[in-house]
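Q: What does the assembled structure look like for these inputs?
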Amino acid sequence: MMDTILLLALNGLIWGLIIALIALGLSIIFGLLDIINVAHGDFFMVGTVLTWYVLQETGLFWPAFILVPVIGFVLGALIQRSIIQPIRNAAALSIVATFGLSLILQELVRMIFGATPRRILPPIQGTIPIFGIEYEIYRILAAALSVAALIAFFLFLQYTKIGTWMRAVRHDRETAIAMGIPAQRIFILTFGIGFALAAFGGVVAAPITTVDFRGGVDLLPFCFMAVIIGGLGNLPGTAAAAILLALLEGVIQSFADPTVARISSLVLMSAVLMLRPQGLFRGLAK
Amino acid sequence: MIRTFVERFLLVAFAAFLVSVPWVVPVIANKFWVSVIAEILIWSIFAASVNLLFGYVGLLSFGQALFFGFGMYGVGIGIDQLHLSFWSAFAFGVSAAMAMALITGIFAVRLTWHYFAIITIVFSLIFYFLAVRLKPLTGGDDGINFSLPPVFSFGATRYSLTDQTFQYFFILAIFAICFYLMYLVTRSPLGRAFLAIRENDLRASLIGLNVYVLRLIAFVMAGFLAGVSGALFAFFGRYASATYMFYHVSGDGVVWAIVGGAGTLFGPVVGTTLFIFIRELVSTHWEHHSLIVGVMAILVVMLAPKGLVGLWREGLSRIGEQKTSSELNAKARLRSQP
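A:
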């Protein structure tokens, strides 16, 4: 019994790290562009599908870690420029436009890739003993890569010029523009980075989950939960909430079925929305 | 002037067409399209429920499928397990949807904007997962099938929805009642109060409107409309399933209402008709009709944020303006002549 709980908790933790990557993109897009991106789960799904194609074309898994986020970044930038930019004046309707985008992405993938879910074998096989259980090596690598990407993202935001600009635009758009920050380019960049993060999450998760055109649909509510429980626009809070939620669902899953686990985290999320709409962690960090 | 005249004419023509559908459509197309039109009428009521909240009160709900599902399951469970008669099952479904709207509304309407959209998704997801889980009661994704009790029975003569023409007129009657009610609400002081909240909720509260209670009333009314459409859809398909409670169904309703024109009485009908026609026409040849839905949703938000009805009205008023301005010019020219 203890072993099952540990196993599911570890699985949950790793999913939490991957979801943190996706939810961070969702959160910066909301923070900077004021857009609820319903298509964000599909960005992750596109990442898993691209990974499958990289594997088909090159026969290797490793290039996907570089190629897929780069493609994701370009796609994100293009989407921002062609769809999100023109609707800036109708912010209330942005959720409708991203819903349309989500339909388009899912349908395109279904058309090109097909409707059959496929599996990808992890590039490293085998298990190692951890805390007395045999655990897959790839999952540990996945956790390490996600943590590395999270750290890289926060370092980028904190210590580079563009990262500082992004924070400035989020903090006060008008002043930032008055100070000469090219807000337009920052918006494009932000959307690109958001897509790239989700796509990277897709690469990391591809061998753990299935590659399916509906892969993002189940994930999206979870990412929203992380963003909201962490506090809209609070990036470290979002990452923490993602890890916490997934860990919690993992533990609940060890004694109840996954649906019950999902329902309980949804109920938790509604409670947070009602009682602390600014997020659980506001006031702790500052 | 020109607008009211043209629109009144269109409305009469539309009503005349709807009444003649069971005789005309099988002649010009085939019988299949009668049931497509019946389905359009049902989903139009659903889109109207999104429209009532977003177009008139300014709350964008992504969770109306929850109330659609309650209407649907109220009828399904009412007939299949509680062995209710037709009308009591109908009432059971609609009241279940309204009760649910009241309960979730108490919490949801405390929030606005993005938060409101998200909490409505969350509530509908909770009950979607519950419906999937409670398989013995709901049948989960597979749903429950049931057979219909008669609608009216006078002695030996029975009217049941199994008669296609009767079914069509039954749906049309409910559709007409719902839109007439909606028309009455938008004309009433209550409707004006809704608009005041949509335009500026702070000012509305300062002139003495109870914004919270009014939003809750609108939410329950929208729950009523979604519940009616869900109950009708259950009668129409003799079927209830958890898949209709997923947030994609809510999203469809939002797209239909906004593409047609939020804040107008018949915008949702236009949007729903357009998309269901596209679906029915395209899906037999090409299975990727969702692409068209997605592209159209984006194009409308980009080019015509007021929807097709908004676009049409802008066009009409432009024609009207041109006419009046050319008349004025002509008069001015006449006057300037010695």
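Chain B has two domains: 1-30, 32-254.
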